[in-house]
Write a structure and sequence with these properties.
This protein is an alpha/beta fold and 290 residues long. The protein has one domain: TIM Barrel, CATH 3.20.20. It is 37% helix and 17% strand. The strands form two sheets. It has an eight-stranded mixed sheet with strand order 1-4-5-6-7-8-9-10. A two-stranded antiparallel sheet has the order 2-3. Helix 2 links the parallel strand 4 and strand 5. Helix 7 packs parallel to helix 9 and helix 9 packs antiparallel against helix 10. The radius of gyration is 19 Å and the shape is globular.
């Protein structure tokens, strides 16, 4: 496979074929993210993608494909349809195609266009929400408003595509910790995703947020401060049917829960860890990672 630079994927795509169809991120301005800063965004030539798919045919049965890099949905609709058709042609056992997206790229597609992509195999979209706090969304240069992200979520769900969103614990620092958590609970409620994942902020050198941290302009919560945010987000979110996790390697307290079904139990668990300051149940620093 022809990979350019670092390739990342969601935890749930661990066993998927990683097909790089774009390089970098079409936005690439978030102050906390250093993943694609060394990459200039481009859409890879269809000829190279076809070559990669020819190689993938030799791998045997392939059931899931994840489209890399940061935002494959930004590809213009006709070309994206052609790409999905090419995947189906080369990998007849394919059951699901997934991709990262941002609100801007989703809102460039109509519901009918998203439905067409679903017919061609696009079954799940991963959207980084990060926070529901309006001030923080602007401060981190997210490139989307609260309203745009909610509208993007509704458009994906109306098209029948599963929606998985991520939020970041600690993104407001100590100063905005509670506001960040409560507003994030609100946007998750308004979006009502199928899956939601909480990550814990890990500062990346050479990013603007890291520079703020080093200059003393940004102060991180402590371990239990991050976990309190997790508690507040779950306690104040209302979902129809959502699988909520904090099992990413960055998190201090891994949880998996179906909400609202297991809400009471998971809140009791988190509360007990906070009240008892139970370090045995917290992931040690050396096991944390991006």
């Amino acid at each position: 496979m022809d990979y350019e630079g670092l390739i990342i994927r969601p935890p749930s795509e661990a066993y998927s074929l990683l097909l790089q169809v774009t390089v970098g991120c079409s936005h690439n301005k978030c102050t906390f993210c250093g993943t694609y800063r060394q990459k200039k965004f481009k859409i890879k030539p269809m000829e190279q993608i076809a070559t990669d798919l020819t190689e993938a045919r030799s791998y045997g049965r392939v059931e899931k494909v994840f489209l890399c890099d940061g935002d494959a949905l930004i590809i213009p609709q006709p070309r994206l349809e052609e790409l999905l058709e090419l995947i189906n042609l080369n990998l007849p056992t394919i059951e699901r195609i997934g991709t990262y997206a941002n609100a801007k790229s989703i809102l460039r597609k109509s519901v009918d266009e998203l439905k067409k992509l679903r017919e061609l195999g696009l079954k799940i979209i991963y959207l980084g929400v990060e926070t529901g706090n309006i001030e923080l969304l602007q401060k981190i240069h997210k490139g989307a408003t609260y309203e745009q992200m909610v509208e993007a979520a509704h458009r994906v769900k109306e098209a029948g595509i599963a929606l998985s969103v991520t939020v970041i614990l600690g993104l407001g620092g100590i100063e905005k910790s509670v506001e960040h958590a409560l507003d994030t609970a609100k946007i998750l409620t308004d979006m009502d995703p199928d899956y939601a994942g909480a990550l814990t902020l890990m500062l990346v050198p050479q990013t603007p947020l890291y520079e703020d941290y080093m200059a003393g302009r940004f102060v991180l919560p402590d371990k239990f401060g991050f976990i309190r945010e997790l508690y507040l987000i779950i306690a104040n979110s209302n979902f129809t049917n959502c699988y909520f996790t904090s099992n990413h390697a960055s998190n201090y307290l891994p949880i998996k829960a179906y909400l609202p079904l297991q809400k009471e139990n998971v809140l009791k668990l988190i509360s007990s860890v906070i009240d008892e300051k139970d370090m045995k149940r917290i992931r040690p620093e050396y096991l944390r990672g991006l």
